[in-house]
Amino acid sequence: MGFLFEKSLMSFCTHSIKIIKVIGLILSFLAAFLVAENTHEPEEIKAKVVYVKIPQLEDLENTPVYIGQIIGVTYDLLLFDAEFLEAKIKDGLDKTQIELLNKMPKWKKVEQELFRATYYYKIKGIRASVPSLEVSAFSNKDKYIDHSIAPKIALQVTDLSKNPRYANVMAKDLQVVQYKTKDYDDKNNILVMELAFKEANWEDFNIKEAIKQGFDNASLNQIKAKEGSVFYYCVLPKTLQSLSFDYFSLSNRQFKTLSFSAIPTQDTTGIQSDLIPKNNFLVFSNVALLALCVFFLALFFIFGRKLIFLGLGILCLGFVLYNLLFTQKSALLLAHKSASCPRKIPPF
Fold it and tell me: Of the four, 14, 59, 104, 179, which is 20 to 30 A from 29 by CA?
């Protein structure tokens, strides 16, 4: 009897295990089916609220650019009931090839939903390319963040330094307005010139023959100006009788040559003329002292040649001579100081 009961129990357990396995298998197939159905259900499509594009994309891709040149890339941004969040360079920036000059340009409103910004880049290498730009905006209606990406721009870069006479400057126009050469020391001369420019990278100007060179501080304040004039100086060996260099014209895309003499001029004070102090008070005081000198000399003869009047007249004359000699000495010292410090470029 016990044996039969034990056999029945074992049979029941075995049968139950098989049923559980079958049920588990059925549930697994059902779960897989439901997941597959959910996977094929289309995701909710959200409306685009931000678009960014480059209007001159084709021109930028097809127009040659040059190492050292500054280019502007203008972006148009469309926002549809959305708030602008940020614009950022995507995939990094190779600073050895291209440099972004304005880190956070302002997006200016052009029309109701149109905004515009210009990014300025300086070309530094032959493999330069404008990186892609990603713009983010927040939808006011559906409360989500949307993105739009302007593509990367491959540039056609040319290296102008293969021309040995190239002075590292390109411009729509560049002219030497005036120049002057003076003695600097026993072996060198100093050349100062005024350069008028239009859309130029004048700050890169470099004359290979120069021992030292640069721009005055006032010129460096015009670094962002599109048009103007700057003062440049360079110290050259006395053996150099003339100077000639090439700049690249962006107007007709060819080199242009500028040449002039590097022989010092003969006058010794012309370039420093305005360093002589022009003090109106000093002029009037000298005139007044001379008048007093004449007045006391007149009193000397009128009142029986009293020595006190003669002494006062001589004293006034002495003050006049002292003022004149002190002024001349100060002017010469100031001129010498300016000549020995070329960062303070003497005027013409």
Answer: 14
User: Could you list the residue range(s) of the whole structural domain that residue 230 is in?
Assistant: 163-266
Does a structural domain hold residue 21? no
pTM, two decimal places: 0.62
- Provide DSSP, 64-75: EEETT-EEEEEE
Both 149 and 71 in one domain: the answer is: yes
Counted domains in the chain: 3
Residue 348 lies in a domain: no
SS percent in the chain: helix, strand, coil, step 5 = 35, 35, 30
Cα of 126 vs its chain's centroid, Å: 20
Same domain, 250 and 323: no
Q: Cα–Cα distances in Å, from 36 out to 22, 64, 126?
A: 21, 53, 52
CATH code assigned at 175: 2.60.40
pLDDT truncated to tens, each residue of the chain (348 aa)? 444 444 454 554 555 565 665 565 555 545 554 544 454 445 567 788 899 999 999 999 999 999 999 999 999 999 999 999 999 998 888 999 999 999 889 999 999 899 999 999 999 999 999 999 999 999 998 889 999 999 999 999 999 999 999 999 999 999 999 999 999 999 999 999 999 999 999 999 999 999 999 998 878 778 778 889 999 999 999 999 999 999 999 999 999 999 988 888 765 444 444 333 444 555 666 777 778 777 777 877 777 667 777 787 788 777 777 666 654 444 444 334 444 444 455 455
